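Hello K.,

You asked for the raw outputs rather than the summary table, so here they are, unedited. I folded two proteins back to back in the same session to keep the settings identical. This is the first:
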Amino acid sequence: MPRAVIDADMRTGKTRIVLEEAKREGRPILVIAPKTGLLVWKEQAKLWGYQGDMFLMNYEQVWRNPGRKFGLNVKLEEVAGRMAHEGILVFDECHRISSRRTKQTRACWKLSDIWRGKVRLLTGTLVRNGLVDLYAQYRALGRGLVFDSWTSFADRYVVFHPVYRWKPVGYLRVDELADRIKPFTVSVRAKDCLDLPEQMTVWRSCQMPPAAEKVYRDLERRLRAEVSEETVTAPTTVAKVLRLCELAGGFVHTDSGTVRKVHGAKLELLQDVLDEVPPGEQVVVYCRFLAELDAIAGLLGGDCRTVHGQVSGQEREEVLESFRNKEFRYLVATVQVAGLGIDLSTARYTVYYSIGFSFADYYQSSWRTVHPEKHDPVYLVHLKTEGTVDSYVWKAVRRKQSVRDALRDWLVGKEEEEEHL
């Protein structure tokens, strides 16, 4: 299959599939991946004995500092010119190019269009926000290969909001859509090929104290609240949701730009959860906001290290390596930074203090502590503040997961049906 999407769960060997193919056919590889995933490719190439040429670049580099010929990165144009005919072009974690409007996505389309060798898109979250994500990713296989155009795709498969024409509210001919992408898709489910430890899902909740709840309700209903003699306003819906999410975790940004602690109920709940973890067991704590991260790190003290967007790549790798060597017990990280392409399997407990609306971030992070060689169950502990936006966020994430699972089951089911025939 010259061009294909490999939609496979974590730990099923997506990277190895490409490396073995390149090694068998003697092909060089050009890998476009998130920053956190580039080191994985180096480690996997060494592990599986791939000794050919491999050029690594993160997604942001694809479109920055464009050259004259194709509008891609200058260095990338040079490498693509050398490798385009016989190489394998890999877009790892291709859900990063699921939005058709971004410069990043369109630069990847250009690269795929000039590529004459094989193209592989690797992901475990093919559908991140809805079936509309499929267009941009399959467009990266090549112009007109799967779908003729965005207009024809949208007219045939997407139902848009009658007022907000950019917002999908439903889908049509889903079976036909799945049939259309099936010849270009390889779907692999971990449960079908790996003996993985069981993932135990735990939900724990807390209640805001009355004073904090008053601040929350004022902001929710009046779009304005008073915190420690400072004002918090939410002039837009997006700002309102963001501030409510902060308040659910115990903190909020005021209009002056300072961060105020409003309550400690969720931190106390986290402490209770961690007290129940057996002694010696490592724990990964994910959160969304830096104020939460700092507070959690302060709560846990010296046996804790943090990873977030302001930590350099080298320091980040040093922290993660120290965690894998069990030099400290608690890793506190933002889910956007430490939820993708890293191995945290020395831990069995993952605690979600807070999370955004991205199903991809949640799904990817939930597999970081899973490893085929582990037999004891791993635990995913979800914290939420009752009566707040937390419940809505988790409901939105689970809804996106159900769409993704339905498509995956349909694709795998069709493949099994064809094999049986």
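The second followed immediately with the same parameters:
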Amino acid sequence: MRYVVLTIKYDIMVNYKGIEVKSKNVLVVNMNEGNRQSAPGRLELVRTFLNTWRIPNQTRVLTEFLLTQEDVERFQTEHFPHLTRTVARDTVIQLRSDLRETIAPGKGDISELNSWLRLYPFVARIGYSRTESESEVCYQPIEEQRDLCAELLVIVVQAIERKMWSRLKACPDCRLVFYDYTKNVSKVWCGMLANGPQGRACGSIAKVRHWRKQHQTKKDNR
């Protein structure tokens, strides 16, 4: 059994010996099949949102999962059931595109998200952390603008503040968005192994391609 333990300071320790570390000051995330790429806490909602556009392993074709306004509303109902306001599909798709741009290989300028914050200003509140007695700043959308985009942006801003956003990455091959739990934030591919029927060993495939290219270059130079 493999676990990643996130401390309250968001340091990362990987336990390979099957020992489950339990403490009131840590969050234990099971890193089995379904959770190898999942993000901690509510950031997983953003990762799920970003993965409504990707290249499924079954087809290897760019696929849009939010084709209609009804698809957007269905996503909202499933993941944010407390919301009553709806937002136009074009706006949702643009937000997804801009968020993906900040985590793409090479990464865009995250300050570009400031234009979204001007559209969706927040209310900042001071509260207490659940895991420690220190105070923390919490953000809430203005009630009149509380919709899907506002809720997603709140999570993104909190992830940036907590130094977690840089760990959200998009695989350069299948475009799947995953959370990088490595200590030095060095993971590039979604995975080296398929880990299930919907998985894809993009890292291994890339290494094989690189080896073949080098091998062919050596043959051509003989």
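Residues 35-184 form a domain with the Jann2411-like fold fold (CATH 1.10.3300).

Happy to rerun anything if the numbers look odd on your end.

Regards,
P.
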